[in-house]
Write a structure and sequence with these properties.
Number of strands: 0
Distance between the termini: 109 Å
Strand content: under 5%
Structural class: mainly alpha
Order of helices and strands: HHHHHH
Radius of gyration: 35 Å
Mean pLDDT: 76
Length: 256
């Protein structure tokens, strides 16, 4: 082994021991708890932005629905006054408004789903934070108890100077405590709620996808009891395109 390698190994051992000796498990766990709590306002802001998008789309949909109703009334009035040119212009605006309404409705559905998912993710994080906080407090109490035991061991050692057996016993106790602490941390890590929450979210997503697939099959008439593609019913206050054309023709015949 070269001289540089030996120096490097000695420096790593020296600074590694210094860092390990200065680490305070209680302070580190307390800081971890503070970091998790500080992240909650950020999550709330993110959820608020998603919900704001949903509310804006809902207002836009309501405005477009009113516009469709208004244009339909103007078309009827224009036809009644035999102003086919104005009626034709209003019909073009009505078709555009109906397309915009359809797109906005789809966007609103996605935004509503995103809001629900964001709220669920925020709630899961809060639950996880509460559980980890409780676990951290237990570890802090164990660390305090271990520190008291170490102080007691040092006090006992002062009465047994020169007794090698007490030194071995003390070292054995320290090693046992470290092994127990490491095993506890491993169990806590394996019992983390992260994987459980991921499984729950994945299961919820699968259920949503299955429901959507069933809706498509039902709409396309691929399930028993259906005879073809079902036409979506118009919203309250709206009329379908064919009903509007039929009413326009009837009004024209009455005027003529």
């Amino acid at each position: 082994m070269g001289l540089l390698s030996r120096i490097s190994r000695s420096m790593r051992a020296l600074f590694g021991g210094i860092i390990e000796s200065t680490e305070n498990p209680e302070l580190i766990l307390q800081q971890t708890i503070r970091d998790m709590r500080d992240r909650v306002p950020e999550l709330n802001n993110s959820v608020a932005q998603v919900m704001a998008t949903e509310k804006l789309l809902a207002k836009s949909k309501e405005r477009l629905e009113g516009q469709v109703v208004d244009l339909d009334s103007k078309i009827r009035a224009s036809v009644k006054l035999s102003r086919d040119d104005i009626a034709t212009a209003y019909i073009g605006q009505l078709q555009q408004a109906q397309m915009d309404l359809q797109k906005t409705s789809q966007q609103l559905e996605h935004a509503t789903l995103a809001s629900k998912q964001a709220l669920k993710a925020r709630d899961n994080y809060v639950l996880q934070m509460q559980r980890r906080t409780a676990e951290a407090m237990q570890l802090i109490n164990q660390s305090k108890q271990a520190r008291l035991q170490e102080q007691l061991a040092q006090t006992m050692e002062s009465f047994q100077i020169g007794d090698d057996a007490s030194t071995f016993d003390e070292m054995r106790d320290k090693i046992d405590r470290r092994a127990a602490a490491a095993e506890a941390k491993l169990q806590l890590g394996s019992a983390s709620v992260d994987n459980q929450m991921q499984d729950i979210e994945r299961e919820a997503m699968d259920m949503q996808l299955q429901d959507k697939l069933l809706a498509y099959k039902q709409e396309m008439g691929l399930l028993g009891g259906t005879t073809g593609t079902q036409q979506a019913l118009p919203a309250q206050g709206e009329t379908s395109g064919s009903e509007q054309n039929e009413k326009v023709v009837n009004n024209s015949n009455r005027i003529n």
